TrEMBL record:
UniProt xrefs under Pfam families: Bac_export_2 (PF01312)
GO-annotated cellular components: membrane
Domain of life from the UniProt record: Bacteria
Record's keyword annotation contains Disulfide bond: no
Annotated GO biological process: protein secretion
Family per similarity comment: Belongs to the type III secretion exporter family.
Organism whose genome encodes this protein: Helicobacter pylori
Protein's name in the database: Flagellar biosynthesis protein FlhB
UniProt keyword list: Cell projection, Cilium, Flagellum
Ribonucleoprotein among keywords: no
InterPro entries tied to this protein: T3SS_substrate_exporter, T3SS_substrate_exporter_C
Coiled coil segments of this chain: none
Amino acid sequence: VIASGVGEVAKRIIQKAKEYDIALFSNPMLVDSLLKVELDCAIPEELYESVVQVFLWLNSVENNAQMSK
């Protein structure tokens, strides 16, 4: 976990992502779980499956972006 925030901090993180054209993935339950993880700490094993889903989505987004070039 390298960035975390709620409220205004979360809005600024989302705004920065949009500025740099970074795709956004929404999973409120996963967010709630990840907010409990300290910065610079490993993701708990019980969240691995959910995080894998994020990586699969990201891979799909990257593949679609490359195909549109």
